[in-house]
């Protein structure tokens, strides 16, 4: 061990630094800078994890199966299967990534060593710390969603290309941004309510069915024939993101009216952020 | 703003009761404590594990919400002015709460930036502090792959990044080997010499004696005594404690010792006798010979000079459980 601060004279480093200007926006920005640093370090491992599932999915369904002479996934004369998949896979990636980005670190921070105190002691009110976590995870969800675009656009057999054009930029941006925020807020809510053992269950028993039944692989209106499932699907937030993206990107495929998915996504974001902020504050302040 | 005369830490009737949870009833962790820690002093909360020290520190550092009484840090209310208090304090918690996604140096850098330093200022100050604390070699390491003593010093550096008015340390040397502990004491003495106000909790008597100007002895959520270490030692009945264990119940003649001048009290518990005395000369020998006269043997004997341990024994009549 080398020399320590045990000397009789006060070393310069022990004198306080220049008067700090710890305003709320500065502290908030510093916390976001921390997230950016961590994301940059883990970029490859984080986003490879997000990409594997959608890439494998389009590979099998838009490339392998059509090559094998399947192609039964799409109605003849109707949109290709990859046209239906694109909004769905982007939506499910946003939701999965935003939720994982908030839940996994939170499990460590709340339960192991309680390392959340590192940021809880930063000079911001605790609810603002919750909002910061939501925004940071939403950014990751958004990046995850954007990365899926090229994968679905370019991986397909001949004649199976998705037919995509942005019909409505404002709706596209709103659905992607608010969808990311809603997912991150939902993740924070679940992460503060559940203990680590139950989070395992959450991924197996909640997120997987949610993705499978989230109108990722078919448009919501196609469920007309299975009325009970169509109604039950309305409780799945992913449905609104998929349908919203469908409306903005593949308007030729039947989709929900804009008022319905916008109300659900924006309303869900507000509600979940409010609830998650409260549960988070309760977990951090004992 | 607050003047320098304002106490660093002041509480009045501070209480914390954790609500019931499942089968567990409500837990009164802190039951009405009054503290007064002046600026510039090294203030210690001493008590066994579970005495309520960490809960008290939690309330003073704004992360535990009091259920009664009041607490002020740097003259600010811990509930109403939590954000402003956080700007002025540094906290070293008991467990390793370093950010495992960042390196040692990044932990300090971002802590500085959370408190308003620019990235460049924060990096420069982090480098200075790491150098001063002998941690330069560890700067690029993961904070969970360094030794416990190093992690503790990194946490102290982190807490000092923004030049806090008051530095709180919760059981800083718990779980460290003796050598590392002594090293850390040197670090803390150095900080105090530099004018840093420090509030520390510990369950080690010798730590409180070695470091603190002023000590509050806490048990079961209440303050048993407080004052400077010397005041506590010379205060209410803090005597030399002589403990003798016999292999059979002791004769009543031993009780008579309590009437002697310079003897505070005599406690008899089956074969164990404990004598609290301001003038202990010759007592130990006498206790042994009383046993010999009655035909019973001595199995153990000890004499503790006035210390915080005897203060605790005197106040509670119980052995100090670490």
Automatic annotation (TrEMBL), chain A:
A Gene Ontology term for the protein's cellular component: ATP-binding cassette (ABC) transporter complex
TM ranges: 42-64, 84-106, 134-157, 169-194, 201-220, 258-277
UniProt keyword list: Antibiotic resistance, Cell membrane, Membrane, Transmembrane, Transmembrane helix, Transport
Membrane topology note: Multi-pass membrane protein
Domain ABC transmembrane type-2 residue range list: 45-283
GO MF term (any one): ABC-type transporter activity
Domain of life: Bacteria
Main subcellular location: membrane
Pfam families attached to this UniProt entry: ABC2_membrane (PF01061)
Keyword Metal-binding belongs to the record: no
Subcellular location as annotated: Cell membrane; Membrane
Entry's Gene Ontology BP terms: response to antibiotic
Family of the protein in this entry: Belongs to the ABC-2 integral membrane protein family.
The protein, known as: Transport permease protein
Organism classification: Bacteria, Bacillati, Actinomycetota, Actinomycetes, Streptosporangiales
């Amino acid at each position: 061990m080398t020399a320590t601060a045990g000397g009789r004279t006060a070393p310069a480093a022990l004198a306080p630094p220049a008067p700090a200007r710890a305003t709320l926006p500065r502290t908030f920005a510093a916390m976001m800078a921390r997230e950016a640093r961590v994301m940059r370090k883990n970029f490859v491992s984080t986003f490879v994890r997000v990409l594997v599932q959608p890439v494998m999915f389009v590979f099998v369904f838009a490339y392998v199966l059509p090559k094998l002479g399947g192609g039964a996934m799409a109605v003849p004369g109707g949109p290709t299967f990859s046209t239906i998949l694109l909004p769905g896979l982007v939506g499910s990636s946003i939701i999965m990534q935003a939720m994982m980005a908030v839940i996994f670190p939170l499990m460590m921070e709340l339960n192991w060593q309680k390392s959340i105190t590192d940021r809880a002691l930063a000079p911001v009110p605790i609810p603002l710390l919750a909002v910061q976590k939501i925004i940071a995870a939403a950014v990751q969800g958004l990046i995850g969603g954007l990365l899926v675009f090229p994968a679905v656009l370019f991986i397909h057999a001949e004649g199976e290309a998705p037919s995509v054009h942005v019909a409505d930029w404002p709706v596209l941006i709103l659905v992607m941004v608010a969808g990311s925020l809603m997912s991150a807020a939902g993740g924070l809510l679940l992460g503060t309510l559940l203990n680590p053992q139950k989070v395992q269950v959450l991924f197996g028993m909640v997120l997987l069915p949610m993705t499978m039944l989230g109108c990722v692989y078919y448009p919501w209106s196609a469920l007309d024939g299975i009325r009970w499932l169509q109604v039950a699907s309305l409780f799945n937030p992913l449905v609104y993101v998929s349908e919203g993206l469908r409306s903005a990107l593949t308007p030729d495929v039947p989709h929900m009216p804009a008022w319905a998915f916008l109300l659900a996504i924006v309303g869900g974001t507000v509600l979940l952020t409010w609830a998650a902020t409260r549960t988070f504050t309760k977990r951090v302040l004992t | 703003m607050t003047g320098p005369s304002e106490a660093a830490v002041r509480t009045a009737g501070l209480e914390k009761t954790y609500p019931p949870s499942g089968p567990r009833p409500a837990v009164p962790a802190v039951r009405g404590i009054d503290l007064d820690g002046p600026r510039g002093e090294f203030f210690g909360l001493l008590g066994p594990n579970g005495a309520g020290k960490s809960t008290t520190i939690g309330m003073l550092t704004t992360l535990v919400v009091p259920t009664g009484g009041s607490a002020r840090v740097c003259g600010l209310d811990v509930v109403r002015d939590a954000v402003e208090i956080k700007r002025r304090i540094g906290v070293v918690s008991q467990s390793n709460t370093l950010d495992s996604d960042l390196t040692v140096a990044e932990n300090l850098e971002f802590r500085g930036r959370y408190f308003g330093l620019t990235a460049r200022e924060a990096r420069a100050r982090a480098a200075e502090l790491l150098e001063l604390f002998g941690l330069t070699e560890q700067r690029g390491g993961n904070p969970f792959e360094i030794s416990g003593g190093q992690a503790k010093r990194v946490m102290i550096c982190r807490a000092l990044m923004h030049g806090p008015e008051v530095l709180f340390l919760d059981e800083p040397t718990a779980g460290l080997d003796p050598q590392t502990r002594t090293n850390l004491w040197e670090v803390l003495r150095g900080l105090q010499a530099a004018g840093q106000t420090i509030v520390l909790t510990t369950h080690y008597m010798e730590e409180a004696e070695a470091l603190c100007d002023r000590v509050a002895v806490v048990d079961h959520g209440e303050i048993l005594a407080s004052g400077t270490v010397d005041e506590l030692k010379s205060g209410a009945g803090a005597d030399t404690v002589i403990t003798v264990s016999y292999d059979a119940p002791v004769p009543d003649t031993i009780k008579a010792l309590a009437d002697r001048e310079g003897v505070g009290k005599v406690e008899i518990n089956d074969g164990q006798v404990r004598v609290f005395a301001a003038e202990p000369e010759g007592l130990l020998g006498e206790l042994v010979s009383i046993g010999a006269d009655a035909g019973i043997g001595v199995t153990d004997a000890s004499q503790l000079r006035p210390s915080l341990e005897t203060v605790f024994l005197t106040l509670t009549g119980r052995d100090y459980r670490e």
